[in-house]
Design a protein that fits this description.
Layout lengths: L1 H28 L8 H4 L21 H18 L17 E7 L8 H5 L5 E5 L5 H13 L6 E4 L18 E5 L3 E3 L6 H4 L4 E8 L2 E9 L10 H18 L5 E6 L9 H7 L3 E2 H9 L14 E5 L1 H4 L2 E7 L8 E7 L49 H22 L8
Parallel strand pairs: 1-2, 7-8
Antiparallel strand pairs: 1-12, 2-4, 3-4, 5-6, 6-7, 8-10, 9-10, 11-12
Helix pairs in contact: 1-3
Length: 413
């Protein structure tokens, strides 16, 4: 758009100059002479005696006329300087703007391009798309025909064709719909998991913030799937490894998991990594009731956001009127600050450990999770993180005390 307006400005300048170059000689041809003959004003006999003074059809193209054309060019340049094609046409991110990311299950996207084109929101992670390779091509053409604002459609592995069909895919498929620049991200998800057409990892840039998004469609309870809960846990584990563990910055894991919160142990792991579901977050902050997203009272559609996005979280929207069997779930965010806070694991510095007269013995300290029945040690169900931190805290403290006793400085952490 910026380059188009730039070229348009120069094209207008060219037309103005061409107009001046063509019309200036003709204006000279039809120039009206003075009311009194120049020869008569000087006391000489007019050479045009007997000739009626009217329009002089002789060409007069002296320096004055060339200066006149140059002044017109300068005037055109000044006028074109008033054409603004920068910030007014392409403003920067609005600090007060809102944006949303959500998920929904439409039970098939084929022949629903017109419905999707009317959706609000900035980014949607779609599950159970039923889009084969041919179906995906027809769906994107449908969005183009409807002049949809969703310019980016990033599918997962195309769904295999159904039996006796040349277009419709089977009952799987995931995809990302975005109004902002979006692309698929490289991953090392096992082929047996990715080829199931149930997971996808994308990156989207919304309001100058890159967000890594993982989308998953879990296995439903059905006789057609062997061990559906186990397979769902496998897919969720691979997605958490890629999005939550191998990436930093704003991250989201979403989709129709097809299982309740207390039925998936991988969600415990995801929450231990700092992620939180938006319905749970809204309930803890504003006492917003947690609403079911599937049939009956089941909550099986989730949007888990990372720590970086919690500070931007503004609300949750659960719409149960858009799709037949599932409610769409979307998180609304405020535009971020110029520098978004991120969380990193601090790397310890190199230190000089004592080499002599250092005898270390672990001394479990009494704490809220330690029990006297276990001799002051934390119980077996205590977090391994707590045990690890407690051990190394005592190691570093013992090393520092030994170095101080030998006349050296304490250990640098």
């Amino acid at each position: 758009m910026h380059g188009g307006l730039h070229l348009f400005s120069w094209f207008c300048l060219f037309l103005c100059g061409l107009f001046v170059a063509i019309t200036t000689p003709f204006c000279s041809l039809f120039r009206r002479p003075q009311s009194k003959c120049n020869a008569e004003s000087k006391g000489h006999r007019c050479p045009h005696v007997g000739v009626k003074h009217g329009y002089n059809l002789s060409f007069r193209g002296g320096p004055q006329h060339r200066n006149h054309a140059l002044s017109v060019w300068v005037t055109c340049l000044r006028c074109l300087q008033c054409i603004r094609y920068g910030e007014a046409t392409h403003p920067g991110p609005n600090s007060q703007a809102e944006w949303s990311i959500g998920t929904f299950n439409p039970n098939g996207l084929a022949h629903r391009a017109d419905v999707v084109s009317d959706l609000s929101g900035d980014f949607w992670g779609v599950t159970e798309t039923h889009l084969s390779r041919i179906g995906f091509q027809k769906f994107t053409k449908g969005l183009q025909c409807n002049k949809s604002n969703f310019k980016y459609v990033i599918p997962g592995k195309p769904c295999p064709l159904r039996a006796r069909s040349q277009e419709a895919g089977d009952f799987t498929g995931v995809a990302a719909l975005s109004k902002w620049p979006c692309r698929s991200l490289p991953h090392s998800i096992p082929p047996t998991i990715y080829d199931s057409s149930r997971v996808q990892v994308v990156g989207v840039c919304i309001q100058n913030v890159w967000v890594t998004v993982g989308i998953m469609y879990g296995f439903p309870k059905s006789t057609t799937h062997l061990h559906p809960k186990f397979c769902t846990e496998q897919h969720l584990e691979a997605l958490i490894d890629r999005v939550a563990c191998q990436t930093v910055g704003p991250r989201i894991i979403m989709g129709d998991f097809n299982w309740e919160r207390n039925e998936l142990s991988q969600l415990d792991r995801l929450e231990d990594l700092g992620f939180v579901d938006i319905q749970d977050l809204a309930n803890s902050w504003w006492s917003t009731p947690i609403r079911p997203t599937g049939t009956g009272t089941r909550r099986i559609d989730y949007v888990y956001i990372s720590k970086e996005l919690i500070g931007l979280f503004k609300g949750v929207v659960v719409d149960d009127a858009q799709w037949p069997d599932h409610s769409s779930v979307a998180a609304v965010f405020n535009s971020p600050a110029p520098e978004l806070e991120s969380f990193h694991w601090h790397i310890p510095k190199q230190t000089q450990w004592p080499t002599e007269h250092w005898n270390f013995a672990f001394q479990p300290q009494l704490s809220t999770i330690a029990s006297k029945s276990n001799g002051g040690c934390p119980p077996p169900e205590a977090s391994p993180t707590w045990k690890y931190a407690e051990f190394w805290n005592q190691v570093e403290q013992s090393a520092s005390n030994t170095r101080v006793a030998m006349g050296s400085s304490i250990c640098q952490k």
